[in-house]
Design goal:
498 residues, alpha/beta, seven-stranded mixed beta sheet, four-stranded antiparallel beta sheet, 16 helices, 42% helix, binds pyridoxal-5'-phosphate
Amino acid sequence: MDAERFRRHAHAMVDWVADYLAGAERYPVSPNVAPGEVRGRLPVSAPAGGEEMETIWRDFEEIVLPAITHWNHPRFFGYFPATNSGPSILGELLSAALGVNAMVWHSSPAATELEECVMDWLRQLVGLPEAFRGVIEDTASSATLVALLCARERATEFRSNALGMGVAGGLRVYASREAHSSVEKAVKIAGLGRENLVLVDVDDNGAMRPDALQRLMMADQRAGRRPCAVVTTIGTTSSTGIDPVAALAPIAAEHGAWLHVDAALAGAAAILPEKQHLFEGLPLVDSFVMNPHKWLFVNFDCSAFFCRHPDVLVETLAIFPEYLKTPHDRVVTNFRDWGIPLGRRFRALKLWFVLRSFGVEGLRARLRGHLALAEALARSVDDHPHFERLAPVPLQTVCFRLHPHCEAGGAVDEEQLDRWNAQLLSEVNGTGRAFLTHTRLKGRFALRFSIGQTETQREHVEEGWRVITNAPVVTSCTASTEHPPPSPTRLPKERHSP
Ligand code: PLP
């Protein structure tokens, strides 16, 4: 493609992207497609000859676009936000154009030094001490794996790297029952063994219980097993539960375990002075991960990993092949030794664009807007006679369920409630007007309403709530269930503090 043709197509596509971002609402949030439908419309083999961009574009519009779930849609309330923004896309475009591999300083000095700079800006914003150094990984899953590899090596004095897992027998990793599945995956990949992942009980708010952690670590030590790492979560995936890091840190330290914090989503809130209480104890941890691609308006992927022991990190992951040696190795940072892959995208550019274009106050204002919307939604749930909230709302996710006449404290079969709520989820998503996902909280099927898309405003949340409360299953089960008599054992609707 010559420069002129590139210019023509690029201009057209940038126009399309601008319209898309401004008008994502005109699409259904999620598509109505059957498994295999898209694949069935695509050729079995690659074309032998080159095709015109117009033809490729037509297929994008006709085959790909109708089967897209629009994560940028302001009524996307599923999973967690994967935010995006104009400045981020521009940074991404330049990164693609430059095609830089940021593996070592020498392979593109600006990529490394900009990454060092923006990660230090972010470190200051989230309130980590100067001893922490930051690196951009692809995902929180990778960052947690890196943290566990560091923990394993520190615990074995770097001998498991040299001799294999024989010397790492009996190393234990602790995480709460609400920890993300990436912790289990990291334990498996790190060769620690899934049975050495010890799940710690949580309290009523989904937070790890320090007394339970202490008991488990003591029991392990008595049995000759070695505590290796504690993975805490600030903002659990199901309900944004907050592990009490300040109370857990001394326990981890007493047993010599590496303390990692997974704040993949919630870490963005650490830039808000009024949310600092959720992050108490952060200066005491060994590593911390947050995803600017989740809730800081940087497009996927961009995961910020901070480590208080860069020497341990580098010793754990460093490799020195001849072909990667450079004259500056003693005085520069070579990020190839800070993560799993050698090749690294120039992600710092989009983070830099976002931090500068929004400014710190601009970022804070967006987050505060989302937090206020979540609070308002929580109130709507609490005020509704047929819905009940299932968890506190410290951040931007509201967990609740349909429970006919719960206000009156009527008893209803739990299995029936699960079925109604699964049906509600399916009906809501089937409208294409809102998209939600679910989880289980204390065994109960719960809907998660996760607010955080860059352009989500009050009217989008209100429309989402309307779609939910007007769903056919709500009408039918609230009409067909007569006011059940209050159960003597059941208290009226559970109330959660916000
Ligand atoms: N940790 C938490 C608490 C999460 O909520 C998630 C994503 O849902 C992850 C980790 C995984 O994030 P990533 O996709 O960046 O690996």
